[in-house]
Amino acid sequence: MDTLHFKDEFETQNVRVVRHCIGSFGVNTYFMISKKTRETAVIDPGGVADALLAALKDEKAQVSRILFTHTHIDHIYAADELKRALPGARITYHIKDQPVIESLPDMCRMFGVPCRTMPPMDCDLAKEPEFSVGELQVRSILTPGHTPGGVCFYIAEEKLCFTGDTLFKGSVGRTDFEGGSGFELRKSLLHLLDVLPDDVQILPGHGKYTAMGREKDSNFYLKVDKWR
Ligand SMILES: [Zn+2]
Ligand SMILES: [Zn+2]
Fold it and tell me: I want to staple 221 with a disulfide (CB 3.0 to 4.6 A). Which of 85, 92, 172, 195 is the partner?
């Protein structure tokens, strides 16, 4: 894993969002920090655990959850080390991603990286799709297609949605990995179009930020009138 590392941050009324992009996968790891209480969710801990832990300390973050939009190797790379350092943080993902976890050794071989394991699940989004981080209400939206248990994390009050590898600026996730489905991804994108207002900020698993309205206007994969 190389040491490519950039960081940026912004704030809404109640949330501080810090993004780190560390390592060769180019995954966006987010800290969603309650400005009031510093209670924090780490979303998709890819990259280098030591760097993430140091950054969390700088933020005085109280990490109560580690959230996974899905469990591909780039999004879980630092999960085990992070959980060991933060045993109180609840490992939260959707059980339908279990086959993806079982295929991790194959995926690691394919990418030529050391295999990493997922820490045991503390919270299954199939059973508890909504939860809170401090005073922030988080709703997970099941969006299969890139993986069977892929989810988006939507904080309606703050107009933020973490979309993982389901929706990117100008693109969508690939569907040719284990458990992927173009048919399911289309259904998930239609669902997001129904659920997310135009002014919701989209925070994807890779690449730049965007807004739902902008994607509706410019993302080829969301021009789905013909699918309905
Ligand atoms: Zn992925
Ligand atoms: Zn990814």
Answer: 172
